[in-house]
Amino acid sequence: MATVVVAMSGGVDSSVAAAMLRDQGYDVIGVNLRLYSKEDSQAYSLNKQCCTLDSMRDAEAVCRKLGIPFYALNMEREFTRDVVDYFVSEYLQGKTPNPCLACNAHIKFHHLFERAMALGADYIATGHYARLRRTESGVKLLTGVDAAKDQSYTLYMLSQRELERTLLPIGEQTKAETRELARKYGLVTANKPESQDICFIPSGDYRAFVRRLAPHAESPGPIVDTSGRQLGVHHGVAFYTIGQRKGLGITVGKPMYVVRLDPEKNMVVVGTKEELSSREIRLCDVNYIDGSPRTEAFECEVKLRYRGASIPAIVHPEDDRSVRVELLGPGNVAPGQAVVFYQGEEVLGGGKATS
Ligand SMILES: Nc1ncnc2c1ncn2[C@@H]1O[C@H](COP(=O)(O)OP(=O)(O)OP(=O)(O)O)[C@@H](O)[C@H]1O
């Protein structure tokens, strides 16, 4: 019988994933990862979703109920280096990081994946809402059945080797069905609320978090328009994101958006909505889900952010790992953000915006 290590956050999705796999006949092992414990205790106590002792106890209680082994692994060092430090450093460089993507790439599908394989597991599983289709030409990554919960965007960087040994059991159902199953199984996690956007920033205030970890980010400088005229003063480029309109403290009679961040000149550049929208985006670190870099231009739909709309586009490959994306509809992107290619329900791949 195949053995599967289920990454259990202590939330409802991964609890149900473990229950479903057990019932499908797998030998299931539950693993909770301790990822971050440096948050201040007040904010931390609000965060019942991830990495807390409560979450670990919930994951353990679910495993006990299901009669499967449970292990807790400490990956704080890896998480701090590969997710939190990356997150802060990207903002300091005027970029927009996505920590959930970094966590998937480095923590779940690298550190946990490699450990599970080294210990002889056949698969790892998570509670992500996305689907895998095993075909003769390889494993395809598809959107989750529940469009409102689809998490395929956060998995575009996976390789065939990882996909072949991954199971995503709850992507085939809606969130309502997952909750229903959790109640049926009598799991303590059945009524847990949805998790936070960023698990290590329970308050949601990323600026306060960056300020605390990198006090030197507080570094006032000019806010200028695209012709270089000064319109105001900013607190530090790390506290602004491309597309931001509110909180700029400038009045020019029309809505102005952050269109560029220049950490070298310590400058925030603002412009009109037209100046914000991009027609072309360059991507690096491009991954193709089928493992074959394209050489010819292809049409697809792109998502520029996790909960973003699909925008028709033409992708022009430049080399194996970089492309130029021609947007056929309105959209804007910040350097550092992931751009993911879709054809219908299938994820073709994606990359990181450099401009
Ligand atoms: N601390 C953790 N330990 C182990 N696995 C985790 C942890 N955090 C997240 N995961 C895994 O990653 C998946 C996606 O994480 P995300 O934070 O998006 O949770 P979610 O969609 O709210 O799911 P859940 O309800 O299981 O928390 C989880 O379903 C789980 O498999």
Automatic annotation (TrEMBL):
Active site residues according to the UniProt entry: C103, C199
Residues covered by the tRNA-specific 2-thiouridylase MnmA-like C-terminal domain: 278-352
Catalyzed reactions per annotation: S-sulfanyl-L-cysteinyl-[protein] + uridine(34) in tRNA + AH2 + ATP = 2-thiouridine(34) in tRNA + L-cysteinyl-[protein] + A + AMP + diphosphate + H(+)
Location in the cell: Cytoplasm
Residues the entry annotates as binding ATP: A7, M8, S9, G10, G11, V12, D13, S14, L33, G127
Described purpose of this protein according to its UniProt entry: Catalyzes the 2-thiolation of uridine at the wobble position (U34) of tRNA, leading to the formation of s(2)U34.
Family, similarity comment: Belongs to the MnmA/TRMU family.
Record-given protein name: tRNA-specific 2-thiouridylase MnmA
Organism (species): Thermobaculum terrenum (strain ATCC BAA-798 / CCMEE 7001 / YNP1)
Name of encoding gene: mnmA
